[in-house]
Amino acid sequence: MWEYTEKVKDLYTNPKNVGKIEDADGVGYVGSVVCGDALTLYIKVADGIITDAKFETFGCGSAIASSSALTEMVKGKTIEEAQRITNRDIVDYLGGLPDQKIHCSVMGSEALTNAIADYRGEKPPVEDEPAGEIICHCLNITDVEIREAVHTKGITNIDDMMALTGAGTVCGTCIPKIEDIIEEEMSRCSTKADRCCDEPLTNMQKMKKVEEVINNVIRPGLRRDGGDIELVDINGDEVSVRLMGACSHCMTASMTLENFVQEELRKSVSKTIVIKHV
Amino acid sequence: MGRDVYLDNNATTMLAPEVLDAMLPFYKEKYGNASSMHSFGGKVAKDMEHARHQVAQLLGAENDFEITFTGSATESDNLAIRGITSYYRDKKHVITSTVEHPAVLNLCKQLEKEGYKVTYVPVDREGVVDLEYLKSSVTEETAIVSIMHANNETGVIMPVEEIGAFLKEKGVIFHIDGVQAAGKIPVDVQKLNCDLYSISAHKFHGPKGVGALYVRKGSRMRPLIFGGHQEKSRRPGTENIPGIVGMGMAAEMAISHLKDMAGVAKLRDKLQENILKTIKTSTVNGLNAPRTPNTLNISFEFIEGESILLYLDKQGVYISTGSACSSGSLEPSHVLRGMNLPFSKIHGSIRFSLSRYTTEDEIDYTLGVLPEVIDTLLTISPFWDNEKKEGKIPE
After folding, report:
1. CA-to-CA separations, B58 to B247, B253, B254, in angstroms, rounded
2. Which residues contact B368 (CB under 8 A, 6 or more apart)?
3. Spatial CB neighbours of A136, under 8 Å, sequence gap ≥ 6
4. What is the model's pLDDT at position B387?
5. Which of A67, A216, A201 is nearest to A127 (CA)?
6. Helices B241-257 and B17-27, interaxial angle, to 10°?
7. Contact B343 A35 (CB under 8 A)
């Protein structure tokens, strides 16, 4: 059982501002059904002030609570003020979240960034740095940092890794896990030289990246033509999507998929991606 | 309000009151050490041997000495697989399935690090182990095959009898992880032709902290831990007598209550049929496979399992989920993934598991609160509207 604060419990039981704003001035998408959580944030803006905010969330209790908190926090703020809200602020508003649930608050701040970009008519950013899984719980060090160290610092053993990152230096429970990650990353590389390979993505990272490109690059493109897209499944290199709205009956749907969706994903994620329409 | 409807019996079960009564004297006046030479300990040894007999009966073992008590089914699984591989040192191949419990899967991953080759036999869409794949994977090198009797998440029963017959002919050692089967369906190690069979007491209304491993007469294996002569040195350490006596009592009761399982299946089916009828976005996982009578794994599209769990928790209904959010690792259920279910179904999957103590009233109550929970979460979901618009889901 997760240790949720009373505030979190209250907000997932009675979430505020659920729903759509049909004539929203900005919409931000994050996540997908594939990764297990997704958030759509709608904002209404007048004279540079956010007058209304609503959300729709697919996710766990803390995802719902984070989304609800976010809508409360942004209302009445100027765009500039809202922009400064970080995931930490959402966590504080909720009175804390379990370690493994921090990403729910990150999802909130990303949705806000994307909604503001949309309001300004800009393309939402595609992050380079994937969020990781916390391996060293004493010092909050993620697998991403450990993987990075193997590739960029040429770390090949646990002692050097502990000295460099501090991971595993407090209670020591995670040491075998760190060793497994080092071994896994080393087996991806053909050479031991500094910056030894292109850092192929782990499955989770690949999923996150596909999702981000779909939300931030592909969806805004399709929506301009009255269409929409949903990520349904990822199995190895095969990415299943569903075209919706105007796109679903469009004669050129298959061309859209191959020329636009598949190309974008190949460009940003991996050259071997194949799109499947379901 | 204030109601508790416990539908998570594949996680653990209520201790039967009769079992507790049987155990209590061993926490009080009968505290002797079964290994002692005096009669104060000797009496306790007799009670322990009675428990061994009761457990042997549950599994259809020919001899009581084929039962070794352990601290958990995880330990039994480890003792079985490691015990065999460390005896047959020249055989470096192990076969298991992709949907095993972590007690077997993570041990196999460790064996791979130690230089073993492990074959993970896939399952079909219903969650049943691919028998032909398994058969064609066996080689001269194979030390042991370990397959679960029934899956903890879906309740799907594996073709262990066929596997046992095949492996017996091949002369390959067969371990069955029977944690989710014992007490729910008949178990007969003779018919199954297995060499080893792992069980846990707390899954059939016994106490926690005690498991057992059936080891067929004449099997050759080495212990995991070393010490005194307890359990014939196969599992040294002073015996957990209250636990063992409780396990024996629970086993005896499980045998006599096996006939009640038809009633449990009836309740499970009622739950299943009503959910499928009233909630259009639901599908049952493993529907067309043989399943344990108490388990129902069901997916709700467009919503997430942990939020279903939390909302049901508020109503006093306790279940579990295969969603990534609840696992802590952010990886969704490997069992449902192994069945090739799309992520949308895995993240929205929940498991109901009943027991012989589950009442019809509890099932009716659950059926009463569930539709509103699902409806509320659908209104929050960003995917639901699209589906309605596309006309894929009838209103």
Report:
1. 11, 9, 8
2. none
3. A165, A166, A167, A168, A170, A174, A178
4. 60
5. A216
6. 160
7. yes
Q: Does residue A231 carry a pLDDT above 70?
A: yes
- pLDDT-derived band at A134 (thresholds 50, 70, 90) equals confident
b/e code B344-354 from CB counts within 10 Å (16+ = b) = bbbbbbbbbbb
Q: Which CATH number fits domain A203-277: 3.50.50.60, 3.30.300.130, 3.40.190.10, 3.90.1150.10?
A: 3.30.300.130
- CB-based contact A233:A250 (threshold 8 Å): no
ipTM of this predicted structure = 0.82
Decide if domain A134-188 falls under CATH 3.30.300.30: no
A82-107: pLDDT as tens digits? 999 999 999 999 999 988 788 888 89
Which residues in chain B are contacts of A277 at CB distance < 8 A? none
Residue A192 has pLDDT above 80, yes or no: no
Residue B392 has what pLDDT? 47
Distance CA B343, CA B70 (A): 37
Asked if residue A194 has pLDDT above 60, the reply is no
Strand order in the sheet with B295-300: B282-284, B295-300, B349-353, B320-321
State the best of A40, A60, A114, A278 to mutate against chain B, taking most chain B CBs within 10 Å.
Answer: A60
Q: Which domains does chain B have, with CATH numbers?
A: 5-12+259-389 (3.90.1150.10), 17-257 (3.40.640.10)
- Closest CA–CA distance from residue B327 to any residue of chain A (Å): 9
Nearest to B323 among A18, A36, A101 (CB): A36
Contact (Cβ atoms closer than 8 angstroms) between residue A228 and residue A244: yes
CB contact at 8 A, A41 and A63: no
Query: Nearest 5°: phi and psi at B103?
Result: -60, -35
- Which is more confident, B230 or A134? B230
A63 touches chain B (CB under 8 A): yes
| Encoded amino acid at A112, one letter | L
Q: Which of B100, B154, B130 is nearest to B283 (CA)?
A: B154
Residues with pLDDT less than 50, chain B: 391-395
In this structure, of A120-129, A155-164, B50-59, B358-367, the range with the lowest mean pLDDT score is A120-129
Compute CA A158 distance to the chain's CA centroid, rounded to the nearest angstrom.
29
The CATH architecture one would assign to domain A6-119 is: Alpha-Beta Complex (3.90)
Residues 6+ positions from B199 with CB-CB distance below 8 Å: B55, B58, B59, B73, B76, B178, B179, B182, B211, B212, B213, B214
Residues of B in contact with A204 (CB under 8 A): 330-331
